[in-house]
Structure formats: structure tokens, C-alpha cells
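Bench log. Compound arrived from synthesis this morning; before running ITC I wanted a structural hypothesis for how adenosine-5'-triphosphate sits in the protein. Inputs:
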Amino acid sequence: MIKVGIMGGTFDPIHYGHLLAAETARETCGLDEVWFIPSFIPPLKDNEPGAEGHERLEMVYRAIDFQPYFRALDIELERGGTSYTIDTAEALVEHHPERSFSFIIGSDRINDLPGWHRVAELAELVSFIGVERPGAPIEKSKLPAALSDRLQIAEMPLIGLSSTDIRKRRAEGKSIRFMVPEKVYSFIQRNGLYES
Ligand SMILES: Nc1ncnc2c1ncn2[C@@H]1O[C@H](COP(=O)(O)OP(=O)(O)OP(=O)(O)O)[C@@H](O)[C@H]1O
Ligand SMILES: O=C(O)c1ccc[n+]([C@@H]2O[C@H](COP(=O)([O-])O)[C@@H](O)[C@H]2O)c1
């Protein structure tokens, strides 16, 4: 079986926290590949979107350029509607029977995992790799056994970056350089993304 990590997110924009989470999961769990999947409409978020789907996808492509084991998929953008992970997992498992899938997930999302759409079925199709984010300690013991049994923790240095903060900094005219890869930075600058 080829082991694939799924890095799902809004990526509005993608930043070094996402990339380090993917790389840490890859190394810790011996993944062969990590697939980045930008969501169309993220299920549990109510903040205003910043960039269009095609722009978020383009930034992901730019961020993972030249990394042989990273790929980007437009499956959720193409599907449209609310991007439930179970729908994505069902499609991936059906189309890639030679691969096993683990969903990489930050600790802020781990804590709301029990509320995900059809999560019991999701946990049968994929396992989870958790990475910690500042301010959101991983509380594995608070998860139901069906989920915690499927969750492996990958230790990474805490990275206090968030897309929300990056958008806010742009709106305030502050620098976001070195928070995102240079090619993402130049795309944001050139297209005037996240300006107030
Ligand atoms: N700094 C980080 N360290 C570890 N994981 C992260 C980090 N930032 C995001 N993630 C994880 O990456 C996935 C996708 O995150 P997402 O695209 O929503 O980024 P975000 O920075 O949380 O965005 P926003 O601030 O807009 O909510 C989630 O599982 C999230 O927990
Ligand atoms: O399927 C769900 O119910 C669900 C609920 C919350 C988040 N997710 C997925 O988790 C990933 C990270 O979510 P977010 O909101 O931090 O971008 C992204 O791929 C979402 O589609 C999925």
C-alpha cells in the first residue's frame, strides 16, 4: 500500500504552518506522499472568505513547487458545496484502492473532530495524524475511543501562524514576508490579495 497523507484546509492563504505540518507528518508516519486539498466551503468556519478558490489552489501549487512527494488536488473545488471530508475520503478510497489515507489535522480541529459530518464512517476510511498548534493542546483522552484509536500524534515545533492573522496583517498594511513561501508572497502582492 502507498501511504498518503491528506492535508485539507482553506489555505487562505497557505503558510509555513501548513507546510511544516505536512512535512512533519510525512517524516513521522513514513508517508509516501502528501496531497493538499483546498476546500470549497469549509464546513465549520463562518469567517468571510478572502481569496477565490482558484487563487487558493494557485497559492498551494506555488508553495509545494518542486517537492516531489507533495501534490495538490482540486477535487473539493470541483465538487463545490460544503467540503465534507467524508465525501472526499469516499471518492479517494474508491479511485485509489492501492493507497491508504491519513488525514493530517491541527490540534484546533482535533478538538472539534467529534462534530464532523459522519465522522464514525470517516474514521473507518482514514486514520488521523494530529499536529499541535499554539493555544490548542491535544486532548486525545477527551475523544471517543473510535477516534482516539485512529489518531497518531506527530511532534512538530509550535508554529504560531494562522491564515486569519496573515489576512489581518495584509489589511493593516503589515508585512507577511517569510510567513509564506516567496512564490506565495509574490502572488499575493501582485494580485493585491487581502488588502483592506
Ligand atoms: N500553524 C499551524 N500549525 C499546525 N497546524 C496548522 C497550522 N495552521 C493551520 N494548521 C492546520 O492546517 C489545516 C488547515 O488549516 P487552515 O487552512 O484552516 O489554516 P488556518 O491558519 O487555521 O486558517 P484560518 O486562520 O483562516 O482559520 C487544519 O488542520 C489546521 O489545524
Ligand atoms: O467534514 C467535516 O465535517 C469537517 C469539519 C471541519 C473541517 N473539516 C476539514 O478539515 C480541514 C481543515 O479545516 P479548516 O476549517 O481548518 O480549513 C478541511 O479539509 C476541512 O474540510 C471537515
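What the model suggests: Residues 9-12, 17-18, 21, 105-106, 108-109, 131, 133, 159, 161-164 surround adenosine-5'-triphosphate (ligand 1) (CB under 6 Å). The domain at 2-191 is CATH 3.40.50.620 (Rossmann fold).
ITC booked for Thursday regardless.
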